Known about the structure:
alpha+beta; 6-stranded mixed sheet; 5-stranded antiparallel sheet; 9 helices; 23% helix
Amino acid sequence: MDILSVDITVPLRSYALELKLETGQTTVALVGPSGAGKSTVLRAIAGLVHPSRGTITLGDQVWFASDQRIDLPPEDRPVGLVFQEYALFPHMTVRRNVSYGGKERVDELLERLRIADLADAKPGGLSGGERQRVALARALARGPRVLLLDEPLSALDAHTKATVRAELRELLHELELPALLVTHDFEDAAVLADRVGVIVDGRLVQLDTPAKLVSSPANPFVARLTGANLLEGNARRFGDLAEVVLDDGTMLYSTDPGRGRVGVVIYPWEITISRSTPADSALNHVAGSVTSLVTVDNRVRVQVGQLTAETSTESAERLGLAEGAQVVASFKATATRLLPLGETA
Length: 345
């Protein structure tokens, strides 16, 4: 099994990208803010960016080694790269675009990616999902041993995105290649990748399974990225619990140990909404008015003060939720995670 190993430094405008990771026949997604260095990682592996130091190897093949002065040109690296905007040649047919990557497997790839009936079409007449399949076919026509995808779903509308994401997940599992993809969307990363690396200011701050990133975020940025509410306050021990006084005076309780300045992490799906304080096992109850309601598929996101909760459309209708309605957001101490932020203010 080929292991892709990357240990590089690349100077960027405001800081240096410092990254070290390995992956075998699995998919790693890199997420983080714009300018963090995510796409630079892909370009360095492909040979389009030259690190100032480090190594890039695939198995026993050395693609880059600063101390040995090895830097293989892009054409000598068996990499399939799918660019963010797909970079298809507008004057070429689908068949010619794919054959630009390699001529031996064109018919096979057109069939595999279900674009054989589009072989004579040109990119301008294709949908976003079809263009993405053509770009993937062209990348695979090279017979790559590593697949790199830069924001592969960003050019798609929401309806197309869900379908193409499922297709891409299936393809990545079938290929059994080391694959790296860059995305700004944690949901895409969680669906497509076995592990997700969070890059901030050129540093890999956490690399873990999607589930681990949600259950144990390394810092407040990771918590926000994974969709959590993040509140701030001061914590102290309270028996077997931590008692947290938020900056607005609200009192919360957590089973996590906490002392001093903390970030309080609660995921929307762990919050229940009711019209009055329920008699249940939840220790945390935050009363307030609904400031917004956003429906996505069969779920409704409900904003109550600083908190965003998620409930089903049926529950929202049963509760008669509307902007201005007075409600109580409840969540358990076990669902209330604490991240240290520094000393008590």
